[in-house]
Every structure is written in C-alpha cells, then in structure tokens.
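Model: You mentioned two targets. I'll fold them one after the other.
Researcher: Yes, keep them separate.
Model: Target one:
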Amino acid sequence: MVDTAAQIWRDYVTDAVPASGAKKPEKAKIREWGTFIEASLPIRPERYGAAADGTTDDKTAIEAAAAAAIASGGYLYFTPGKTYAFTTLSLPANLNIRSHGAILRDKGTNTGATVSVVFGDNTRADDVTITSPGTETNTDLFSFGDGFYANSF
C-alpha cells in the first residue's frame, strides 16, 4: 500500500517543507507516491506532444499515449472538444479509450490498401467519433481486432 501524502510529508514545522523540521522525507516513498498519483491520472495525447488542433498530425503522440496507457494499466483519454488529426493510427491490444466529445480526424490522404485506423484485440472505446474528409482512396478505413467493444462509437 502506498503511503498517503500526510504520512510522507509529516512532522514538519511548515507543512511540506522538508528542511523545516526534524523528520526527513524518504525519497523512495516520495517516488512511490508520485508514481501512484501519475498512474491514476488519465493519459492524454497532449502529454506526448499532440496539438489537438484538427490540422497537425497527432499520430505519434496518440500512439505514445496509447502505449503509456497500456503500460500503466490506465486508459487513453481524448480531451472533450478537441480534434486529433492523423494519417494512420495503430492502437495496441487491450487499450481502453475514453473520449466524451473529442474527434479523431483522418486527414484523408491514404490510398490503396492502407488502413486508416487499426484497433488492437480487446480494445474498449467509449464515445469515440472518427471523421474523414472523404478524400482518401484507401480500401479499408478501419480494422477491428478480436473482442473490440464500443459504446457510442
């Protein structure tokens, strides 16, 4: 069990100022607590460089955020009201996606057999909207892995 903030930052003359009292915080406990807090935060593509402006290709940031969500056991959260543009997107298996009003926008530049979005096996998506300008000429827009589940896709 991770210690609480009150346990880690205790016994200081001035709260949360380690040098102000006799008790020194344990760096390992601080790192453990910080890691616990970070793991409970939603993983947003913006943390990995997404512009979410509907124009900039956010592919690399989205895929990095998806990998981080898998590694942390968390979920990938797209910010409501934002538009994330991409050319192609490959999302890993066992990913949980939450959107609640964000838009994933295919830039419409794909041709031939290129698949615009690949969803890995056992992906769960809640309230995801994907749009395209209709200018792409690829044969498959989406590829859904086994066990794909969507609620309001």
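Model: Target two:
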Amino acid sequence: MCIFYALFFRHFRLCCVPGSLRLFLFYNLIKRNRHLEQIAIQINIKRALLLSDRSAYNYYTDFSEKGYYNRIIAGNINQVLQVDSVVCNFDRYPYEVNTYARQMIIRESNVTERSLVTRCRLLNASRSDDNPNGFTIEGFTILENRDLQTLER
C-alpha cells in the first residue's frame, strides 16, 4: 500500500499533501543489502503507520502474511513509485484524497509498469516531528493496482 512504502522523501516533495504519500512507502523499496533492506522496510513502515489509522495497518499485515516484502528482497526486485497526481477536496471535511501513480517493478529479466490509484481521507492533527504536515490518514483504500505493460530486458 502505497505504505507503506520507504521514506525516500524525494517523492513527498512532489505533492501538495506530502504526508499522504508516506503510505506509498510500501511500494517504494529499493534493493541494496538484504539485512539492511529488512531493517529499512521495518523502519519505513513504522514511520508511515504513525500517520494513519488501522486501514493502513491492515494492508501492511496482509502484504506481510502473503510474503510480499520477503519476495522483494529474495527476488532482488527494485520498485519505484512515480506519483502522477494527488487530488484533494478541501471543501468538505474530512478531506477526500485520490492519488494516481505509476509503479515500476524492476527485475533482472523484465520491467513491469503498474497503475496504482488510492483513496483516503485526511483528518487534521497536531504537527510534530513525526507528522510535519498535520494530517492523519483514515480509510485508506487501494482502488486500482493493475499491470499496464511488461518490457523484456
């Protein structure tokens, strides 16, 4: 879920609601060292979950139980998330947010491009070092996560 996904902050600067993108930390994982990667995943997910309700945690546990993170590490797979747009409705509270992104799954043999569309609501929260944007994510949902194309390398 888009968690829930590394704290590689460069992606957060691309969006008007950077905190909402921390959920993309689950997908934004870059393979380097197996042990270091496992630690990085745990740290990044912990940081991302501080900004969300139980809906994000439910995705995390589902991914973990299905072996998603272990397969990324064991398969030497790199993933890059490119956020196309974030649409926020600030006219009604809680603020509804839709995020549109492309996920690149890079393997030795091929590169798969996926479409990723998510929805959540933002609640006002106190700003802190862990939550510099002052929002909490609730009701996180993945609306679309499908293959667009696969290119052989």
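Researcher: Noted. Anything on target two?
Model: The beta strands are 78-89, 95-106, 110-124, 135-152.
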